[in-house]
Amino acid sequence: MAKQSWWRRLVDGKELVYPEDEPAPAPEREPLLEAAIAADLDAIDPYLIYSDWLCDHGDPRGELMALQARCKAKPDDGRWNFAVRTLDPWTVLDGEHAPRARALIERFPIRLGGELDPGDHVEWHCGYWKRLHVDYVPQSPFTLERRIGTALRQESARFLRTLSIHAKAPIAERLPELPPSLRALHLGGSAMPTTALEWLGDLSALWARARSLDTIVLQGSSMMFRQPFEAPVLKSLEVVTDDLDKRAFHAIAHSELPAIETLILWIGGRDNNASVRVDDLRGLAANPLPNLRDLGLVKCAFVNRALEVIADAPWLPQLRVLDLSRGRLTARGLDVLERARARMPELRYLDVSQNRLDDAGCKRARTLAPQVRTTGY
Known about the structure:
With 377 residues, this protein is of the alpha/beta class. The chain is 26% helix and 19% strand. The chain is built from twelve helices and 15 strands. The chain has helices at residues 6-11, 31-39, 45-56, 61-69, 98-107, 144-152, 206-209, 246-253, 281-286, 303-310, 331-340, 359-365; strands at residues 72-75, 91-94, 121-125, 128-136, 162-167, 184-187, 199-202, 215-220, 222-224, 236-241, 262-266, 294-298, 321-323, 349-351, 371-373. Helix 2 (31-39) packs antiparallel against helix 3, helix 3 (45-56) packs antiparallel against helix 4 (61-69) and helix 10 runs parallel beside helix 11. It is elongated and about 70 Å long. It starts with 5 loop residues before the first helix and ends with a strand.
């Protein structure tokens, strides 16, 4: 007689009996079912099939998978970071089955990976962590390497997609081996966006550790790269900082980024005190970047002159999104944009919010793209 699925047993009110929580035992594993999940991390059916298999082997994660598969994700407004554009907002699971799922995690904090240090945070998806945030302080009894490594070795991290690390210490050289499922890395960001930015240090070692990632966000008060790098599969790079180091900008501008689609750089600085100067943009303008579609030159005090430099860039006709927010754009910059508009047939969205445009300037800007943002954060 065929066994009922776990979900059918749950609906019928038939409970499974688990042993009490204990130091995490080696879980039962089925590589073929795990491979089916890894092939499409968003598909629900592979999780449900694996859920039945785990339940038949006495693993409470099977029940957790079935419960969370029927929850709905809603935005976690407390962790919405307006400064970061390229990462999805944090979510929490909601719905009639969410309380039971939370109770199961609380019952088995070791086996299901619910025990986290203060400041850490996870986002769940079908019984596994979809996103993990690690908040590290130097006073911790464990090293940063051990903290991250221990978290990544948990069974709940098997299908982790996004790793976020906030640390009051340089991070790049201390990253352990990243899980093969990981697609996005956020260094420097806090789980609570009001936290001050930290110094990220020298990030030159990052690229050798992150060659399989398609999204990287670097968020810190300052950071440095020593030389250009190769990132053959990287699709999105966002750098959020108060004052972008001149060498770091030069390294990015001259790097090999054949797959890059989104490049957002916060220039920072004030007036003539910015580390990056307008002439530094010439390297970026000369870089072919064959797949670039989304460019951000954010918080740029010399944005008017920057537009003059990139007006002849080979990738300008490809752009669909141009983010010039938080800068000092004036009528002079709008003149450049109007002249260059014929070279931007694909432009769909223009962000000129938080600049120095009066009502007349905002009206002019709204003629430059189908969607134009002139106000707000």
